[in-house]
Amino acid sequence: MNDDMSGFSIKTKLENDEYYTTPEGYIVFTEKYHLKRGYCCKNGCKHCPYGFNKGTRRIKKN
């Protein structure tokens, strides 16, 4: 298995409205990206449309 990620760039696969970059250089995914992906990763993302609560480790049902 090749673990070399030197040629990998996630930005080339994303549309401009699916993420933004913080002043510190982090990539933050938008709600549009999460909905396009189709599932909750359960990491407590800032723009999670699924209602995941990191404290209780549960997805809030609408």
Could you walk me through the main structural features you see in this protein, from its secondary elements to its overall organization?
The chain is of the alpha+beta class and 62 residues long. The chain is 11% helix and 16% strand. The protein contains one helix and four strands. The chain has one helix at 31-37; strands spanning 19-21, 27-29, 52-53, 58-59. Strands 1-2 form a two-stranded antiparallel sheet. A two-stranded antiparallel sheet has the order 3-4. Strand 1 (19-21) and strand 2 (27-29) form a beta hairpin. It starts with 18 loop residues before the first strand and ends with a strand.
Distance between the termini: 41 Å
Helix content: 10-25%
User: What portion of residues belong to β-strands?
Assistant: 15-25%
| Count of domain modules | 1
Low-confidence stretches: none
- Please state how the strands of the largest beta sheet are arranged side by side: 1-2
**Shape label:** globular
Give a quick account of the main beta sheet: strands, pairing sense, barrel closure: 2 strands, antiparallel
Mean pLDDT comes to 81
Order of helices and strands: EEHEE
